[in-house]
Amino acid sequence: MSDEAERKACVIGWPIEHSRSPRIHGYWLRRYDVAGRYDRRAVRPEELENFLLGMGRGGLVGCNVTIPHKERAWEIVSEANPDGVGRMGNRLKAVNTIWLDEAGRLHADNTDVYGFMANFRERLGAWEGTGRRVVVLGAGGAARAVVAGFADAGAETVTVVNRTLEKAERIVEELGNPARALPLEHLSEVMPQADVLVNATSLGMTGQPALDLDLSHLPDDAVVADIVYVPLETELLKRARTRGLRTVDGLGMLLHQAVPGFEKWFGVRPEVTPELRQLLEADVAS
Ligand code: ATR
Q: 194 and 201 in contact (C-beta within 8 Å)?
């Protein structure tokens, strides 16, 4: 295969060594026999603009964007191509997937929302969002994507519960109905009416403090989801499972958010197969 035929994409962040995206895209490149590459690239914040504006010259067809670049990447792509950012990217003012069109113009969107909801639905089978009462713990970038996903799915309320109330209030201001803000101390008041509880904080991740929640107030048919996937079964999910509640782990969000990017760069809509999940499960466990 010649170099000209090879399409190249990458994931950029600072730092970037932790990213598992190359495993996912590498699996799909092999599975679909695509002449392409997908690497990690460490890009410092002060290099981001030059990197994105020079992607075509550098032989790249696009990239994933991770911490701390998602918000600044949104600004850069919006300026370079005012119609270039998709609906969710503009709604969240943050993007994680960037691609070039045939004319070399930059485009971007946020696929975290799609990733979270696609996985949530896949893990639960038929799941209807209309009229649901959802509680989201956390008010960072990940929480913002989860709130937008449930709002779009027709939830009746999406209560954003956070240690720092002002950050929850900012999400509510930006995303509007059905989001509302609540301080962490009041969490137990909304638990008895919750259809879904999502941890979108970093608590419970290996190396972070545990999320110590009493789940006894949740209804018996509630669903508990975690965006943390190291460990795969967090203490929160273990407690929920022990209580007989349905659970959704965080690994699937990572897998599903990668689908639209691969399709844009390499022209094949890839499948999140059980084999891919097993590969990442082993990676997370190692
Ligand atoms: P990301 O953008 O990846 O979601 P983030 O912006 O750092 O990450 O958000 C982390 C979330 O975890 C925040 O909601 C944070 O609460 P604050 O807004 O009050 O900082 C929450 N979090 C982290 N450590 C916490 C702790 N020890 N107790 C309660 N919440 C915590």
A: no
Indicate if the pLDDT at residue 1 is higher than 90.
no
Statement: the pTM of the whole predicted model exceeds 0.85: yes
Q: Is the CB of 164 under 6 A from ligand 1?
A: yes
Q: Whose CA is nearest to atom 28 of ligand 1?
A: 163
The proportion of the chain whose per-residue pLDDT surpasses 90, expressed as a percent, equals 97
Q: Confirm or reject: Cβ of 139 under 6 Å from ligand 1.
A: yes
Average pLDDT, the chain: 96
pLDDT of residue 4: 52
**Which CATH fold topology does 113-249 show?**
Rossmann fold (3.40.50)
- Which of 147, 149, 189 minimizes the C-alpha distance to 169? 147
- Do the two domains 7-110+252-285 and 113-249 of this chain adopt the same fold? yes
Ligand 1: residue of 113, 163, 235, 254 to mutate (most ligand atoms within 8 A of CB) is 163
Give the Å distance between the CA of 187 and the centre of ligand 1.
15
Position 195 scores a pLDDT of: 98
H helical segments located in 98-197 = 112-124, 141-152, 165-175, 187-190
Q: Please report, for the chain, the start and end positions of each structural domain, with discontinuous segments joined by +.
A: 7-110+252-285, 113-249
